[in-house]
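Input sequence (283 aa), recorded before submission:
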Amino acid sequence: MVILFEVLSRLPLSVLHRLGALLGWIIYLSSSRYAARLRENLKNSGINGGQQLMHTNIGEAGKGVMELPWVWKRPLETVVASVKQIHGWEYFEAARGQAKGIILLTPHIGCFEVIGLYVAAHHPITCMYRPPRYPALDKLMHQGRERGGMTLAPTDLGGVRQLLKALKRGEIIGVLPDQVPGNGEGEWAEFFGRPAYTMTLIGRLIESSGAAVVMCHSERLPQGEGYALHFSPVTFDTASSIPKQMNAALEVVVRKHPAQYLWSYNRYKVPRGALPPDVGKGA
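Predicted structure, token format:
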């Protein structure tokens, strides 16, 4: 895998995206389970676009796989330079001015990997990640991500403590808000009209630190030109369900670039040991 990453990383981003579009279709046609989930999630979202949207999304998912070696193995300054457009950076700077830290929510849109590296080139950031099963992949992940001012925090109690310490230092933390948490770490909240087990961590971090919340999503530009980053402020009413509010904010962002959202992700799964939503309501 390391050798393959090295070889692929030397190809131009435009070539990797063309290969990725092909890979997306290979995965889609070779896995009926994957294809069914993608179709179901996209159809149930209610977003109009029909077959054209689905076909584009299949290719975009493949691009996300093929661009990963380039993002992880190219020099940090090259990756940062691939960000051609920045929208809403003033919201990020305004949040920094509050000096209570920033919770940066980065959903599965476009090349979300590039967001943390771009921020890490300017400011210290601690990003939560789920350690893979294979040590070699974990090492590759650390090498690719822990550059500039980035530190990785695992999805366990120690990792949560790392995040909280970073916020109390007035730094930035990065979290994938649409990643399914483990049992006991979330609550059921609607996401595109369906109950999705959604992390409660963000609410706990806000309560403990008073940190500002900023959403940032990446847009993959055409022809391998690079990326555009879109920052937007998020305000939560702490008296109401933060997971519900967070999912509503995510929906707004996803609707802007639905073709680049990772619809194939198993967002509606029931974590092991957790009660399904219907059972939970009746309890």
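Checked by second reader. The beta strands are 83-87, 102-105, 125-129, 150-154, 172-175, 186-191, 194-199, 212-220, 227-234.
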